[in-house]
Design goal:
globular, Muramoyl-pentapeptide Carboxypeptidase, domain 2, single chain, 7 helices, alpha+beta, 4-stranded antiparallel β-sheet
Length: about 170
């Protein structure tokens, strides 16, 4: 299982092998479509805000966020350097309800639905609350990582487990 983080960068040349919708690897794209449809059946709107991002796109995003925040340290808490973003793998997706962005998303119907159901579709909340020292990133209730249901269902009993803890890596 590929892990990308501040401690585990990937090559500038890495791209998803077989991208589907939103640039996600096809299994992730199909699982995401099923998850969005299930949410819709429950009356919940889930919208993709960001899927795959190239190395160059991530570089541009980080530079713009540093300017926007006026604080490089703060910008880096939420925005990865190029080569250190899971979005480059085609396995990560930022989701929202189309209205509420930021940490307030966790209190929306969509945020609550995803918290309860994402693992059923192979996705985990990648940056849970209180785990910044492990993941290297602040809590992001919108950032989900596809790991497949065989692995994600093991997260079901522990909402705050990180991928690093699950895999036993630093």
């Amino acid at each position: 299982m590929i892990v990308v983080s501040r401690q585990h960068p990937i090559s500038k040349r890495y791209v998803p092998a077989d991208p589907g919708r939103n640039g996600l690897e096809k299994p992730a794209a199909k699982a995401l479509a099923r998850m969005v449809a299930a949410a819709k059946a429950d009356g919940i709107t889930v919208v993709v805000r960001s899927g795959y991002r190239s190395y160059a796109e991530q570089d541009a995003i980080l530079k713009s966020k540093i300017v926007e925040y006026g604080d490089e340290k703060l910008a880096r808490r939420y925005n990865a350097e190029p080569g250190k973003s899971e979005h480059q793998t085609g396995l990560a997706v930022d989701l929202w309800d189309g209205e509420t962005w930021g940490t307030g998303f966790r209190r929306t119907a969509a945020g609550k639905w995803l918290w309860r159901h994402s693992r059923d579709f192979g996705f985990i909340l990648r940056y849970p609350p209180g785990k910044e020292a492990i993941t290297g990133y602040a809590y992001e209730p919108w950032h989900f990582r596809y790991i497949g249901t065989a692995h994600s269902l093991e997260f079901k009993a522990n909402h705050t487990k990180t991928l690093e803890e699950y895999l036993g890596i630093d």
